[in-house]
Specification:
By secondary structure, the chain is mainly alpha-helical. It is 70% helix and 0% strand. α4 runs antiparallel to α7, α4 crosses α11 and α8 packs antiparallel against α11.
Length: 272
């Protein structure tokens, strides 16, 4: 009887080491799924995802270089235009991909191991790698082909991408909630943000904008992101108006607010 009682006692086993990295494995699986579904079915695959934005930006640089031969800053219009367009495109791509994370991974989020945060992180990682490769090849090509007379400051460039990443995540998470709860929000956002291409100081310098528009323009976080990138490439450009604290503050408020609403309503949004 004693032996039977001993064998009948439940055995407590330690948590398996395999389960400790569940989140990392889930995110990696979502990253691979993102790359295979987004780029695996198109000719050229992931290479085309890099070449397509490079080709588009290059064509715009060439056209505006012909129309505007004298840049507001420096001696090379291609590098001036690229320092404004590349961080703007990085923000737009990051916020857009994260905004559609819940819709894109709706079927997978129903599994208990997969959360909406995993989907957001996975989409950010894929987009970050892609956009960084685009920026690397584009800037390298411009610096090799044109006498830009610039000295890239890599810590300052890293700060610019940190600002653009934070703002992209903040806006994307907030739009992820608003777009899922209110379908008309996506159309409204697409229309409302079209002027951002013109008012984010991509074609001009912030200092050349007359008052009172200059003071109003300061509250556009993308003006600070583009200004930081130009400050990183042009050592003689001071850009005292750039405030990383303002950009990170706006991003943090948007991200925290969006995550709170997603945590509260993600089940309801998933069932729609």
């Amino acid at each position: 009887m004693t032996q039977l009682a001993q064998t009948a006692e439940p055995v407590l086993r330690p948590i398996s080491d395999v389960k400790r990295f569940t989140t990392a494995r889930v995110v990696m699986a979502l990253v691979l799924r993102e790359m295979s579904t987004s780029y695996g079915r198109s000719p050229g695959g992931y290479i085309w995802a890099i070449l397509e934005p490079i080709g588009g930006i290059t064509m715009m640089v060439i056209v505006f270089s012909i129309l505007l031969r004298s840049p507001p800053l420096g001696t090379s219009f291609p590098i001036f235009y690229a320092t404004g367009l590349v961080p703007f495109s990085f923000w737009a791509s990051t916020s857009g991909r994260i905004a559609s994370a819940l819709t894109y991974s709706r079927s997978l989020i129903s599994y208990p191991r997969v959360t909406f945060v995993d989907a957001i992180i996975a989409r950010f990682i894929v987009n970050f790698i892609t956009q960084m490769l685009v920026a690397y090849f584009l800037f390298t090509g411009i610096l090799m082909l044109f006498d830009s007379e610039t000295i890239p400051n890599f810590p300052a460039i890293a700060l610019c991408y940190a600002m653009a990443s934070a703002l992209g995540v903040g806006v994307g998470v907030m739009n992820c909630f608003l777009g899922a709860m209110y379908p008309l929000w996506n159309r409204f956002w697409a229309i409302a943000t079209r002027p951002l291409f013109l008012v984010s100081c991509i074609f001009m310098l912030y200092e050349t904008v007359p008052e009172p528009y200059q003071s109003i323009l300061w509250y556009n976080p993308l003006v600070h992101v583009c200004g930081q990138m130009r400050k990183a490439f042009f050592p003689f450009y001071d850009a005292v108006y750039v405030s990383p604290a303002y950009v990170f503050g706006v991003s943090l408020v948007l991200m925290v607010t969006g995550l709170i609403f997603l945590q509260r309503y993600h089940r309801e949004m998933r069932e729609r």
